[in-house]
Specification:
Strand order of the largest sheet: 1-2
Low-confidence stretches: 179-189
Radius of gyration: 16 Å
Mean pLDDT: 89
Number of helices: 9
Helix content: 40-55%
Length: 189
Amino acid sequence: MIRCFDLILAVLGLVLLAPLFIGVFLVSLIFQPGSPLYLQQRVGREEKLFTLIKFRTMKPETRSVGTHEVDLAQVTAWGSFLRRLKLDELPQLWNVLKGEMSLVGPRPCLPNQTELVAARKKLSVFSVRPGITGLAQIKQIDMSTPDLLAKTDAEMIRTMSIRSYFKYIVLTVCGWGRGDRVVQATVKK
């Protein structure tokens, strides 16, 4: 059932957001070095590699490592804007349409993130398609804490339902997973 929602929402997103895609692409051509699109090998379902597509947010010479390992000086001003609004993730709708990803699932890691790959393998996280967003993103758990991330991914997989699928999408669209929202949520408790 979730795959059906993935397909419907990915098609709707690609069609309805086409003007935004084109705008971001054109502005990226003008204000940023290198190709506006960034292609990177990631580990997908059953540990099969696939090519993830995003809008470029870093300088072309940036090494291919986890975001937490990259010097922030490598992120361009335009890239910072795209990241803040999560617009850099939009091209991944194509990965969803192709069946390589889901809208909701564990964020796909790089093959060279061996500690995370091992932790996820141990908890069968690779049994599902990776996603654009999920529980770890909402909780702001990144790939710098591989064991915690793998445990959070496994928890999300174990408790996944149609309701939680849409909850994670809505929370992501509303800005959860960014520092300002998490701080507000913590203060309210």
